[in-house]
Amino acid sequence: MRVLVTGSAGQVGSEVVAELERRAAAVVRGRGIEVVAADRRRLDVSDRDAVLAAVTSLEPDVVVHPAAWTAVDACEGDPDRAFAVNALGTRHVAEAARLAGAHVAYVSTDYVFDGTTDRAYTEWDEPRPRSVYGASKLGGERELDPTATVVRTSWVCGRSGANMVKTVLRLASSGDGPLRFVDDQHGCPTVAGDLASTLVDLALSRRPGLFHVTNAGEASWYELARHVVAVSGHDPGRVEPIATADLDPPRPAPRPARSVLDNAALRLGGMPLLPDWRESVGRLVAELTR
Fold first, then answer.
1. Active site residue 133
2. Which CATH code, of 3.40.50.720, 3.20.20.140, 3.60.20.30, 3.40.50.1220, is assigned to 2-161+191-216+260-275?
3. pTM across the whole model
4. For 221-260, what is each residue's pLDDT tens digit?
5. Which position among 106, 111, 121, 133 bears the catalytic label?
6. End-to-end CA distance of the chain
């Protein structure tokens, strides 16, 4: 089985490649896995000709597609680039996959919701994005065939790239002053390695449809930061809550106030759920600080 991973240098893509390589190394009998890792330099998904040439020549069985422009505030200032990469780029991947007979597994986001509900969102709730980033990722969802796998996730942190856990660790180690994080935005912190395992399961088994995949439990950014500071051995009392409206400077892109995702399709389908975010973030912090 040949699996192409787009955005392979990114936070999710790098963990997907690692997970696939672990499984490939574990195969003793039966069908093996050949992993083709394509970062942006090797494959720019906004370039239709490049995508068609790459996919039709490689002839993968599965395309895992986490490649995206995820700079939420920058997307707000450059919507053309956001839609060229996140929506049109996914159209190119879907078109090429159809020509090659490959299954597509696409990574989307909680930002497709407006965050105004008082309960967790299921896969069957109507998306209403507030930001350009959220709208462009929803555009990508709508470019896919019904047979594709769509995985929405949220608040991803991992070993690669920039993320909130790394930011908190850097700030906690850099001084003794207060660390202020908003406490009126709630979501599901998700560790990229945990996400990658379930994403690969869904992709290799060609499970069609939409799945929410996050670590269990919810938190505010303040609660996440406080936990990271505590488990890294620093003083959690340094972390102070503030309101989104008090951010200085204010963020260009609006954020959903409550974008908690219910992993209903996994749960109702009897598939394994991810561990509680506190457990997984604790493991990640230990790995990043040793």
1. yes
2. 3.40.50.720
3. 0.96
4. 999 999 999 999 999 999 999 999 999 899 999 999 999 9
5. 133
6. 36
